[in-house]
Design a protein that fits this description.
This protein has 876 residues and is mainly beta. It contains six helices and 63 strands. Strands 29, 34, 35, 36, 37 and 38 form a six-stranded antiparallel β-sheet that branches.
Length: 876
């Protein structure tokens, strides 16, 4: 069953070999990418993306995938908005339903359906940490992933090779195709669970599988932009061409677009058709600079739907009517930016110096918008220290000193003596340094020249990696070696510096983006530190890389490590007082050979005495900023000890957490510790009866024991009360305990006992506990049944036990459970019951819902006519 919620259209607060050589040649001429955004000097918000025709509607999203829109009565209507809602939408062949996914602020994901007719969102399941996009069979059965499990709305399910976001089900509902953690594609037989490999046995990563309408072929893409098709009949896959945003037109033809790039700028895009059998490719638009993108086949009207980025139009192309404009934007779409998804606790990253390509070079440099490659490379070199700060003053976005901006565009000698005097140009602007070297010879091979630039600046000589994978990301990050990734965040292609991954599967990566952060308003911007972007094919609530073309490695021959050393400069007193103020000075140094990421200095107290209280408390923290090698920081802290400590010996600790992910050169110099005595409160550690015990003796043992290990107990301060009445007259006491010695009987009932004890320093401990005194013993074999009986079966039992009560007449009954020591565990029944047999279940939990330990328990049934007790044995 689907779960339904009415949709508020105005607000969603939570959602508010030879082939490699050919590929290198193609990238020398074109950079073919999949993000449909026309970039000039800045990334424009509010553009149309991925228009789809469905049931007479034109459905589309914006270039931040923040909402779903439709064209209605000549205008734009926003259907729904939410984080990532427009990343991947599918249409059901039945009804008026489309499928998509939303990501909540806490990062949980929900696959959903949207009913166009009812304006209604349908949640397919509860939010989970990993959920996939929705697909449909030809009969309208919805399918989606939840973790590594595929669920179908008809009740079927199967295991996938791994969690995948895109898991399209075949038209006949028998197969699903998805990727594994290595981004290799597999068919899974939903009935048998059998897996069959789809992608070729290459080192490349693949994504975005799509079934042909007849269900006999699967179209998919490499993360670098090569289109492939797999034949189920032949069991083989073969490459087609380079292209982006590919879709099926029919079972023999695919549609896609290509983008042409010159001097780092996108200058044109056209639509293409490819016959998968003949291999022929046809340019369908052939316009010089109109930017036709994201084709989609409208089966109902036999036309291609697409959009143009130059004039912001949605258009149609048919054999009979030619091209027609369906809608043109008068103003940009209103894009909603959502708060950052709460970061995963499993994120692995480190920080490196940040340099912005637009705002950190000298003011004379006019090619900053085209300098992402050089800037990303400079960040890597600054991290390793092969370039040192060379300050310049930059005036944007505000006047500031830029320590590394000159390396982007000025001439300089490298650490190996090479002179960076090659010149590069971009639309009339020029520069030397990293920009000039990488873009030399009219941008002929920016990837190859960047790799060459790296080793001429002291890095290991590594070739360009044209088969990027998530496994390689994890390896490089774990070894703490930043590298540059060429991707399709922008239509021109974009270089960014990779420094982490957000989750163990690396489906979201962490970068220093030299252009800013595309998840936030304005691009370019000055907030590119630790920007998060989703890997192609995944949708975790961040902007998507769309394609990952290659990696350019920056590797030092010796991995760089930090070495944080902490020195305590103060002489902490041997004896302290709880709640008192102390002054402590520390010196923190980075004695390693690379940057230490921001962290915290923590003051802790550990229990180190006889009371065994398991105290491990942080009572003061302070954030430490990034520390360069050989730098020092001095701190003077005025600290207040916790004001509720028990008198005992503690381990006073000052520490900076060890970098447990990447390691440090030395692990023992991050902490200072000293044993100290703390004068605090006396510790009450034992009472009789125990808390919440049920006893039957009218002259019970009643005492409280306490301990003062540092100071002394003031015996004049020891008091014991019962139900608010001081009973010291019935007691004896000393510095260790107070005990009731009177033999005066106590009446049955509920009791509250309280002990007070103070030490010579004036700290008073007060401890209160309760117990119940019954008039009769809990004899497990005793029975005074009156007009009822009590039985249990099975006995022993696990996990459910059944208690059967037989009444000969109506009566108020109470059924209680006690452990073997007489402590009350739970009341199972309390109230009026009619004559007859009543079955009462016990699931092995106490009154707080916690599962009890294995052992013997006593069930006691009472009524006005008498009582009955039986023994129960609970096994876990």
């Amino acid at each position: 069953m689907y779960q339904r919620w009415k949709l508020n259209l105005n607000a969603f607060p939570e959602w508010k070999s030879n082939r490699m050589n050919m590929k290198r040649f193609i990238y020398s001429v074109l950079l073919l990418i999949g993000c449909s955004v026309y970039l000039q000097s800045a990334e424009v918000d509010g553009l149309i993306l991925r228009p789809r025709a469905y049931r007479g509607h034109i459905i589309f999203t914006d270039n931040r995938t923040s909402a779903l829109y439709t064209v209605e009565d000549g205008g734009i209507q926003k259907l729904a908005e939410g984080r990532g809602i427009g990343y991947h939408i599918t249409q059901s062949p039945v009804g008026n339903v489309i499928g998509t996914k939303i990501i909540l602020d806490n990062g949980l994901q929900v696959p959903v359906l949207y009913d166009l007719k009812k304006n209604e969102i349908i949640h397919l399941q509860a939010p989970v940490s990993q959920a996939g996009q929705v697909s449909f069979t030809r009969d309208g059965v919805a399918a989606w992933s939840s973790g590594r499990r595929l669920n179908l709305s008809d009740g079927r399910s199967c295991d996938l090779p791994a969690y995948a976001n895109l898991t399209p089900v075949s038209p006949d509902g028998k197969w699903v195709v998805s990727n594994d953690d290595s981004d290799q594609l597999w068919l899974t037989d939903i009935g048998s669970g059998k897996h069959i490999r789809v992608s070729p046995a290459l080192e490349e990563a693949f994504y975005n599988p799509q079934w042909s309408p007849d269900g006999k072929s699967v179209l998919f893409s490499s993360v670098g932009g090569t289109l492939w098709v797999y034949s189920l009949e032949r069991g083989t896959a073969h490459p087609l061409t380079e292209g982006q945003s590919a879709v099926w037109k029919d079972s023999s033809t695919i549609l896609f677009h290509r983008i042409e790039v010159q001097e780092g700028k996108a200058v044109n895009a056209d639509l293409y058709a490819c016959d998968i059998q003949k291999g022929t490719i046809e340019n369908l638009t052939k316009t010089p600079d109109r930017f036709e993108m994201d084709p989609f086949w409208d089966e109902t009207k036999q036309r291609i739907i697409f959009h143009t980025q130059k004039d912001g139009s949605i258009a149609a192309l048919s054999n009979t009517k030619g091209e027609s404009i369906l809608h043109t934007l008068d103003t940009p779409l209103s894009v909603t930016y959502y708060p950052p998804v709460r970061s995963s606790k499993g994120a692995v990253y480190y920080e490196i110096p940040y340099v912005n390509q637009v705002y950190d070079p000298p003011d004379w440099f006019g090619a900053g918008s085209a300098a992402c490659g050089g800037t990303s490379a400079v960040m890597c070199l600054a991290y390793y220290g092969t370039i040192t700060p060379w300050p310049t003053t930059a005036s944007r976005p505000y006047p500031h000193e830029s320590p590394y901006g000159r390396y982007i565009c000025d001439k300089y000698y490298t650490i190996l003596g090479y002179y960076m005097d090659r010149i590069g140009y971009s639309r009339g602007n020029y520069g030397w340094g990293a920009f000039g070297y990488i873009t030399q010879n009219n941008w002929s091979d920016t990837k190859g020249y960047m790799a060459e630039y790296a080793w001429k600046n002291g890095m290991a000589n590594k070739p360009v990696d044209w088969t990027p994978t998530r496994a390689e990301v994890i390896q490089q990050v774990d070894e703490r070696m930043p590298f540059v990734l060429l991707n399709s965040l922008t239509s021109s292609g974009h270089y960014i510096t990779t420094i982490g991954y957000e989750n163990s599967s690396a489906t979201t990566l962490i970068f220093n983006d030299p252009y800013g952060n595309k998840n936030t308003p304005g691009y370019p911007s000055y907030d590119g530190v630790l920007a998060r972007y989703d890997w192609p094919g995944y949708n975790n609530g961040y902007q998507n890389l769309n394609e990952t073309h290659c990696f350019i490695y920056f590797q030092s021959d010796i991995p760089q490590k930090t070495d944080i050393a902490l020195e305590n400069l103060s002489n902490i007193c041997d004896t302290l007082i709880t709640g008192s103020m102390i002054l402590n000075e520390i010196l923190i140094s980075n004695k390693g050979d690379t940057l230490f990421k921001p962290t915290k200095v923590k003051y802790k107290l550990y229990d180190y005495g006889v009371n065994n209280l398991n105290i491990d408390t942080v009572f003061y923290t302070e954030i430490i900023k990034s520390m360069f090698p050989n730098s020092k920081m001095h701190f003077k802290h005025y600290l207040q000890l916790p004001d509720s400590l028990v008198s005992d010996t503690y381990l006073f600790t000052v520490e900076v957490p060890v970098d447990s992910v990447f390691g440090e050169i030395r692990l023992t110099n991050n902490v200072y510790q000293k044993k100290v005595k703390v004068i605090g409160y006396p510790h009450v550690y034992a009472t009789a009866p125990e808390m919440d015990a049920t006893i039957n003796s009218t002259t019970p043992v009643l005492f409280a024991k306490f301990r003062e290990t540092i100071d002394k107990v003031n015996t004049d301060s020891v008091f014991l009360s019962l139900n608010g009445v001081n009973i010291n007259a019935d007691c004896s006491w000393n510095t260790r305990e107070i005990r009731r010695i009177a033999e005066t009987p106590l009446e049955p009932g509920d009791y509250t006992a309280e002990v007070r004890v103070r030490n010579l320093a004036g700290f008073e401990s007060v401890y209160t506990w309760t117990f119940t005194l019954t008039s009769t013993a809990l004899d497990p074999e005793e029975s005074h049944p009156g007009a009822f009986t009590l039985r249990a079966y099975p006995n022993p039992f696990n996990p459910q036990g059944l208690l059967q009560v037989s009444l000969t007449e109506s009566a108020n009954i109470r059924l209680d459970l006690f452990d073997i020591r007489g402590r009350h565990v739970k009341t199972l029944e309390d109230g009026l019951h009619t004559a007859g047999i009543h079955e009462i279940h016990w699931d092995g939990t106490d009154m707080q819902g916690h599962t009890v330990t294995s052992g013997v328990y006593i069930a006691r049934l009472t009524s006005p006519q008498g009582y009955n007790t039986i023994r129960l044995v609970f096994l876990k």
